[in-house]
Amino acid sequence: MASYYNNETILYLNGEYVRAAEAKMDYYSQSFHYGYAVFEGIRSYRTADGETKIFKATEHYDRLKNSAIALNLPYHWTTGELIDITYEVLKRNNLQNAYIRPVVYAPANMSFVVNEQSFIVIEVWEMGLFLGEKLLRVITSSFQRPNPKGFKIEAKANGHYVNSILASQEAKAKGYDEALLTDINGYVAEGPGANMFYEKDGKLYTPPAGNILPGITRATVFEICEELNIPVEEKLFTTAEVQEMDAAFFCGTAAEIIGWESLDDVRFKLDWNDTLSKKVKEAYSAKVIEAEVMSEAV
């Protein structure tokens, strides 16, 4: 199993910087028992000039706040305050290229009444390529995304990710790299922890909001497409349609941008190296370290 901390690791816990090995939480927490908490996945990078930069820090911490409010979790921190704290946690752990996990969680409460307080922890650890370097063999999952009327789909809530774990474990047990989930109507939704795009005839397409968590990396892909003059459109589509496309990729903070080799063993029509999708990946890699984008506009 991966080791995320050692005896020297420091995290931020409710106003204090403490050793991860000594940190404690209440095992009667509503979050522990019911998954009632919200979180963010954030990355920091060593930039081209050697500095440490948290990518899209404001957007991530704003979403953390919005997620907490959506789930009725009391929230009393400011985005600026949490960004400053996060840089301090990175500094104390001597990390630049890191994964950052803030979690807002609930106190001891076995009832379903609204809590009067909540707590926060910010953890950091080294993370390489979450889904590896090779193009992915993706399989359509037997699991679907839950009905969006059953929860606040725009909130990045801990309990929602049981669905993601089940789908990803199923895919790997069948010998694939990752899963693709559909929505309750059978249209493509997203991966277990990433949004998806496909490419066809010089244009990118992605599922619309409504049955997905509209990711911050997804929004960054839209920015890159505008910068590179690549047309992009939100639309509904099926897995059978994706199999007929030129290319496809996942995007997310942990996954970054990673191309697919195939969906349900059907390979895509273009070589990945000849795709606009690869240009988007290269532009994203340059953007996070604040280097010049070398890809030419199309």
Descriptive labels:
16 strands; 7 helices; D-amino Acid Aminotransferase, Chain A, domain 2; 298 residues; 2 domains; 27% strand; disordered C terminus; seven-stranded antiparallel sheet; D-amino Acid Aminotransferase, Chain A, domain 1; alpha+beta; nine-stranded mixed sheet; single chain
Brief summary:
With 298 residues, this protein is an alpha+beta fold. 25% of the residues lie in helices and 27% in strands.
What do these coordinates show?
It contains 7 helices and 16 strands. With 298 residues, it is an alpha+beta fold. It folds into 2 domains: 116 residues, D-amino Acid Aminotransferase, Chain A, domain 1 (2-Layer Sandwich); 153 residues, D-amino Acid Aminotransferase, Chain A, domain 2 (Alpha-Beta Barrel), CATH 3.20.10. Strands 8, 9, 10, 11, 12, 13, 14, 15 and 16 form a 9-stranded mixed β-sheet that branches. Helix 2 crosses helix 3. The protein is globular and about 55 Å long.
